[in-house]
Amino acid sequence: MNRAFVIHGGNELSGAIEVRGSKNSALPILAATLLTKEKCRIRNLPRVLDVMAMIETLEQIGAKVKWLDKRTIEIENRNIHPANLSKDSVKKMRASILLLGPLLARFGHVEKMRYPGGDKIGARPIDTHLKAFADLGAKVTCGRNFFSVEMSRLRKLPDTVTLQEFSVTATENMLLFLSSIPKTTKLNIAACEPHVRDLAVFLSKMGARIRGAGSSTMRIRGAKKLRGASHKVIPDYIEAGTFLLAALAAGGSVLIKNAPLFDLDLVISTLQTAGADIRLFPKKKTIEIYSLKGARLLNGKRMVIQKIQTLPHPGIPTDLQSAFGVLATQTRGSTLIHDPLYEKRFETLKELRKMGVALKICDSHQALIPGPVKLRGADVTCYDLRGGAALIIAGLAAQGTTIVRDVEHIERGYEDIAGRLRALGADIKKTT
Ligand code: EPU
User: Fold this and answer.
1) Which residues line ligand 1 (CB under 6 A)?
2) For residue 154, what pLDDT is reported?
3) Is the full-model pTM beyond 0.90?
C-alpha cells in the first residue's frame, strides 16, 4: 500500500538535527567493493531504501555482507555471479548502472543488462556511459530493453576519454572501470560533485591513483589488483540543504550538525544574499539558522530571491530545485526557477497549486513562483525523492493539514525524515 505523511503545519522548528551519510556517495562506493576479492568496511551508511536495495543486489550476485553496527557493513565479494542479477532490481534503481563499470573491470563483459530505472524526472539516458565505454574500445550492443558491453582484454586502451556532458554516474562508472586498468587515463568533462570526490578517495584507498577529483579533469592510474579498504561515507549535502530550506520556510531556530559546509557554498551564499540569517561554524561542521515563519528575518522583513538556476556542481544542485521552489512561495516578489538539467522536475511545483500558489510554468525548464503566498494544507503526491522532501517542507510551512502521498519515493533517500523532523517540533506522522 502507498503510505502517506500527514502534516499539521504551522509549528516553527527548533533544536538540532544531524546530517546522515550521503546516499549518492554510498551507492558507487558499494559498487566499488566489487573490484576486489578482499573484505571492505563501509561506515556511515544512510539507512535508506536505495542503499538497502544496492546491498541486496550485491548479495544477489554473491556478496557476503555482515552488519557490524547500524550503519557499518563488512562486505566480501569473493565469488560473484553476474548472471544472477535480477532484472527487477536493475529496473527499479537508476544507480544499478553503477554496477556496469566494476563488472566490466572484473569479467570483461556485461551481458543483457536491463536499462536502469529510478525517478521519473526527465529523459536520463545512459548514452554518456555507453559512449564512454565505446570510446575506450568496448563493443556496445543496445536492444529495446537490454544492453550488452564487451571489453576486449587484448586491446590497447586510449589515453584520454571525454564524456559528452557532466554526468555524475557516467563519471563514477569511468572511475570504477579505469581504477582497475594499470595505466594512466585522462578523463575530461568529469562531474565535480562531492560524491564523485568521495568515490575517488575510496578507490585511492583500494590502490588506484587518482588526481584532480573534484575538478573537471581527472587522471586515473589504475592497479591490476585492488585491495580491500575501509571508508566512512561523507555527510549528504543535499540532506543538509533540505533541512536548511525547511528551517527557512517553516521558521525557527535550527542547528544542522555534521553538515558539509564547503559543498553547500553557493546554496548558503545565495540564501545569505537573499537575507537569510545563517551562521556557519566550520570547525564544528554546524550551520545555525534563525528565521521566522515564512522566510522572514528576525526584524520581520522577508527574504527576496529573484532567480535560482540549477547547474552541475559547484552550481546550485538540481536536487534542491523543488525545495527552493517551495521557499520561493514564502519570499517577497516573484522568483524564476531555471532547471536546465531535468525536464520533468516541475511536477512537484505543480502540486503547490493545490496549496494556493498561482505559479506559472513557462516551459519544461523554467517556472515563475509568486510570493509571499499563505500556503494552505492540501492532498499532494510525490513524483520523485527530492520533490517529495520539498512537499514536506510546504506542509510544514502551510496552515492546516497536508497529506503527502507516495512517500516511498522520499524513503529512497531520506532516513526516518518524519521522526527526525518531529524531534524539531514538527507535527508529522506516517500513515500505517
Ligand atoms: N545534464 C545536462 N547537462 C549536463 C549534465 C547533465 O543536461 O551538463 C542532464 C542529463 O542529460 C540528465 C540529467 O541532467 O538528463 C542528469 O544527469 P546525470 O547523468 O548527471 O544524472 P545521474 O548521474 O543519473 C545523479 C544523481 C541524481 C542527481 C543527478 C544530478 C546518483 C545516483 N544520482 O544522477 O540524484 O539528480 O546526478 O546531480 O548519484 C537523487 O539523489 O534524488 C538523484 C536523482
Assistant:
1) 24, 27, 94-95, 119, 122-124, 165-170, 312, 317-319, 341-342, 385-386, 413
2) 62
3) yes
User: Closest Cα to atom 28, ligand 1: which residue?
Assistant: 319
What is the rounded distance in angstroms from the CA atom of residue 397 to the CA atom of residue 293?
A: 7
Residue 120 has pLDDT above 80, yes or no: no
Kindly give the number of the ligand 1 atom that is closest to the alpha carbon of 171.
Answer: 23
Nearest protein CA to atom 14 of ligand 1, as residue? 341
Q: Ligand 1 mean position to 113 CA, how many Å?
A: 20
Neighbour tally for 188: CB within 10 Å: 11
b vs e for 52-91, b when ≥16 Cβ sit within 10 Å of the residue's Cβ?
ebbbebbeebebebeeeeebebbbbbeebebeebeeebbe
Q: How many helices (H) and strands (E) does the chain have?
A: 14, 23
Confidence grade of residue 88 (pLDDT, cut at 50, 70, 90):
confident
Q: pLDDT tens digits, residue range 122-148? A: 667 899 999 999 999 999 999 988 899
Strands 40-43 and 72-76: antiparallel
Whole-number Å distance, alpha carbon 183 to ligand 1 midpoint, is: 28
The residue whose CA has the least distance to atom 17 of ligand 1 is 167
Please choose from 97, 341, 343, 348 the residue to mutate so as to test ligand 1's pocket, defined by most ligand atoms within 8 A of CB.
341
Write out the three cell numbers for 257.
550538525
